[in-house]
Amino acid sequence: MRDIVDKLTSKFKTNCPFELASHLNINVVFADLGKGTRGFYYKKLKRKYICIHKDLPDEWKRFVCAHELAHERLHKGIGRFFVDEKSFYLPGKFERQANNFALILLLGDSKISSGETVESFFLRNKIPLEMHEFYSLAMSFCIQK
Question: What class is the 2-143 domain?
Answer without folding.
Answer: mainly alpha
